[in-house]
Structure formats: structure tokens, C-alpha cells
Design a protein that fits this description.
The protein contains seven helices and no strands. It has about 230 residues and is mainly α.
Length: about 230
């Protein structure tokens, strides 16, 4: 393989990773804006999040196309193959995060029609900030090939689950205390569940990063999980 060919191959791999990083930035913005929309009861921002979702779908398809083309033409092996496949898997998880952010935004458009549930909103805000922090950390781990940070994100999965379980109990208390809040609380419950799932996707990405770097799966008796409500 000539020096020019090697350089071109490396440039293709770098471009693939760069596209994943760019998609990660778009996803972070979608999730953060969806959380802000529901916390601030901002219909315009919620509508904007829904409208922007197509960008992530396009980005995922482009990354998959690039990766499959690279596999077909370059036939990568070992580290390079893991790096290429990781890009496809990371993009898929990011696209799912975008779908969940869109769902939060759609529910916000309904929630704003009801009276504010200030204590619940504060809890959603706290959980949302934690999820965004984990998403940011794992994307940094991917971009920097930081094994230690990826493991840290994976190990902290229980934090998001604990927030979700606490919110679930809080919402049940509200609904039992005042049946008029049932509709708004039900939508808030789905918002919380979507945030919990975004946290799961961050954990998935951490596992992908770990495998890409080491060539081995993360080993644990049971993946960290304390979500007692909703699976």
C-alpha cells in the first residue's frame, strides 16, 4: 500500500469519526433544547426541536453510507474495522436520542396547555441536566478515545435510574392527590422515561467506545440498572 493510499485511508477514517462528532453535537443540542422547552414551557422551542429532527436522520444515513463504502473498498481489519463499525453503532444510538428528544418536545406542546407542576418541573430539570452531562461525557470519550471516561459513564447508569424512580413516585403522589393533574402528569412521566432512555443510549455508546479501544466487551455480572418502573 503506497503512502498516498495509506494517507487517503486514514483521512476517510478521520472524516467518519468527525461526522459522528458533528452528529453528537447536533444530538446534544436537541436533547438540551427539548429539556429547556419542557422546563420553561416554551412552545416555540419545542416546535423547533421537532422540526430539526430530520437533520439527525440524514446524518445517520450519511455515516452509515460512508462506513459501508469504506468497508467495501478498503476492507479494514482489527482496529480500523472496529472504528468503522463503532461509527455506525454510535450514529444509531444518537439518532435514537434525537427521536426521544423529539418525543419530549411533542409532549411539551401538550403539557403547556395544563397548569404548571412546579415541583415536578424542577425534578425534570435536574434529571435532564444529569442526562445531558452523561451524553456530553460519553461523546467526549468517543472523540478523545478516552477509555477511563467511557467506563465512568457506564458505571454511573444508576444515577439516572434513581432520578427516574424518584420522579415516578412523585408523579404518582400528584395524580392520587389531585385527579385533575393526571393528564399532565402522564405526559411528564413519558418525558422522564424518555430521559431515562437517553441515559441508556449514553451507556450503550460507552460500551461501544470500550469495545472499539480494547476489542473486548465490558464485563459485569449485571449491567448497572435500578429502574424498578417501566423496564
Amino acid at each position: 500500500m503506497t503512502e498516498h493510499t495509506v494517507r487517503s485511508y486514514e483521512e476517510e477514517l478521520n472524516a467518519l469519526s468527525a461526522e459522528c462528532a458533528r452528529m453528537g453535537g447536533l444530538t446534544e443540542a436537541q436533547v438540551a433544547d427539548a429539556i429547556t422547552a419542557v422546563v420553561k414551557r416554551n412552545q416555540e422551542l419545542a416546535g423547533n426541536v421537532v422540526a430539526r429532527d430530520d437533520r439527525l436522520d440524514v446524518a445517520e444515513r450519511d455515516i452509515e453510507r460512508r462506513a459501508l463504502r469504506l468497508i467495501a473498498l478498503r476492507q479494514p481489519m482489527a482496529d480500523d474495522l472496529r472504528r468503522t463499525v463503532a461509527a455506525i453503532k454510535v450514529a444509531n444510538n444518537l439518532e435514537r436520542c434525537g427521536d426521544l428528544a423529539k418525543n419530549i418536545a411533542k409532549r411539551t406542546l401538550v403539557i403547556v396547555e395544563s397548569d404548571p407542576l412546579t415541583p415536578i418541573t424542577r425534578s425534570i430539570d435536574r434529571m435532564g441536566k444529569l442526562v445531558v452531562q452523561r451524553l456530553t461525557a460519553v461523546l467526549d470519550a468517543y472523540a478523545g478515545q478516552d477509555l477511563e471516561r467511557a467506563v465512568a459513564v457506564w458505571s454511573q447508569d444508576e444515577d439516572v435510574d434513581e432520578h427516574y424512580n424518584s420522579l415516578f413516585r412523585e408523579l404518582l403522589t400528584y395524580m392520587m392527590g389531585d385527579p385533575r393533574t393526571i393528564t399532565a402528569c402522564a405526559h411528564m412521566l413519558f418525558v422522564a422515561k424518555n430521559l431515562e432512555r437517553i441515559g441508556d443510549h449514553a451507556t450503550n455508546i460507552a460500551e461501544i467506545v470500550y469495545y472499539q479501544i480494547t476489542g473486548e466487551d465490558m464485563i459485569a455480572p449485571v449491567r448497572p440498572k435500578t429502574d424498578a418502573f417501566g423496564g
